[in-house]
Amino acid sequence: LSGLDPAQPYFQGTPTEVRLDKSDADFVDIIHTDSAPTIPNLGFGISPAIGHIDFYPNGGEQMPGCGKNPVSQIVDLDGIWEGTRDFVACNHLRSYKYYSDSIIYPDGFLGYPCASYDLFQSGKCFPCPEEGCPNMGHYADKFKDKIKKGFLKLYLNTGEARDFPLWRYKVTVTLSGKSKVKGYVNVALYGSGGNTRQYQITKGTLKPDNTYTAYIDAEVNVGKVTKVKFLWNNNWINPTFPKLGAATITVEAGQNR
Questions:
Q1: Most buried among 54, 59, 141, 171, by the most CB within 10 A?
Q2: For every one of its 257 residues, what pLDDT tens digit does the chain have, with 9 covering 90 and above?
Q3: Angle at 233 between CA 230 and CA 236, to 5 degrees
Q4: Is 89:63 a contact under the CB 8 Å cutoff?
Q5: Could you tell me how far CA 130 lies from the centroid of its own chain?
Q6: Where in the chain is the domain with CATH 3.40.50.1820?
Q7: What's the whole-model pTM score?
Q8: Any idea which fold 167-253 has?
């Protein structure tokens, strides 16, 4: 059974006979997309973990792309009827949109086991454990025989609009050069599965020999990495023409470590 943001009002905190629960089937997976409190945040979805595995995309409360101006959402994207409905219950309805995208992307929507979304965001729960990460949505049941404990909370990030899946990488850059400068460092990944856009690894003071790390959620699964593009910029005219390079760049894919 897959629960697509099961309802919170009248169900949260009730006995298991009343609401969806992992005792209802051999395998129950849940996608939480609107689990902020109903009062005052108007969250429609249940927040506690109630399945064998519970996915909390983007933290489970506020989905990217749902904070848009209502007029643009209604007029540009979906036409009047679907756009109005989506605006009113955008977070709640993301659950079925993620699910339908998951059918097309069997390798997408990896959920990382983690104690909280903040810990996931900071990279504490990266990469996937030895047994791998389950895929949120249609292929979640491939993980059925790997569950070791009672409740498994899983976190991931998604895109703002279709296509929703993102693939998580840890990128570590060690700089080389003569002197420190202010500015930013961007990296793009190229691989057998496709290329990413540029992602910012750090900004501020850039010191040669220092190492900077960032976690990026890329819009493609790059597969085997074949090339990394390194760019830096210091945003203002600098008469000393500082030079900066990358001594090493390390890329780790969350999926297969």
A1: 54
A2: 999 999 988 898 999 999 999 999 999 999 999 998 877 777 889 999 999 999 999 999 999 988 765 555 555 555 665 666 666 788 999 999 999 999 999 999 999 999 999 999 999 999 999 999 999 999 999 999 988 776 799 999 999 999 999 999 999 999 999 989 999 999 999 999 999 999 999 999 999 999 999 999 999 999 999 999 999 998 777 777 788 999 999 999 999 99
A3: 175
A4: no
A5: 20
A6: 1-165
A7: 0.91
A8: Lipoxygenase-1 (2.60.60)
